[in-house]
Predict the structure.
Amino acid sequence: MRKRRSTLAELNWVGSIPFFVMHALAVGVFVLGWSWTGLALALGLYAIRMFGVTAGYHRYFSHRTFKTSRPMQLLFAFLAMSSAQKGVLWWAAHHRQHHKRSDLEGDVHSAKLDGFIWSHVGWILSSRHDATDMERVKDLAVYPELRWLNKYHLVPPTVLGVSLFLAGGWWALFWGLVFSTVLLWHGTFTINSLTHMWGARRYATTDESRNSFLLAIITSGEGWHNNHHYYQRSTRQGFYWWELDPTFYALWLMSKVGLVWDLHGVPEKVRESHKQPRPEPTPEAPPIATSSAPPALT
């Protein structure tokens, strides 16, 4: 299929310098020498911040699959943004656009239409996608603290970096921020790219979304991407017990102590629908649940 655009020509090379510098610094592991303790720090912060991305950016802010209090909403936003993946409103707005036009003209990161490199990383480095479409996140934009964080999106990763430096110097800064963040970026980006190229398709969706156990391990449960595109309302993306979904397990535990609530499940008739004959043409996936009114927070 002919590509829609020249992705290389659209990259914001100047604005992307920090991204490339982080990758260059991450290679410093070969200069500084290997450290198992450093790797443990990097992977620990990878796991914590991946939860911020998957539970915060994705399942809460983009899809509103559960409810929480206003202080916890702010904590989810701060934790997610410590991953250095731009603002919470920016992230949610672009993700909602992706679902609305998944693998169709208008999708911001379609591997099918624009190839692996663009869907994996090119789109986020393009100046075309710098702005936040507030019309897509009216339900979130009513909160001034979220608008502030979205504007000053470098504050959370900066706070993390300074904290690591004060606690353990350059060693902690390198392993806990630089090396861990580069791993986190590419772990997250596999959902935009590889889960639309590689894996199994249980449900007949209108896009190329696929399920992958390996990517579910890497992304704390986000690898069940075909499940998710078929029924976006569910907090749980691993629809069956054998489909590993650590993000859901953590949210379930949080719900038991009242930190989150109203976790949306998967109706059995939805989960088992792939076993039934489907009419043609295949209907589109259920729309993302959004509202122009603010959610009920306490």
Remarks:
- Strands lie at 67-68, 260-261.
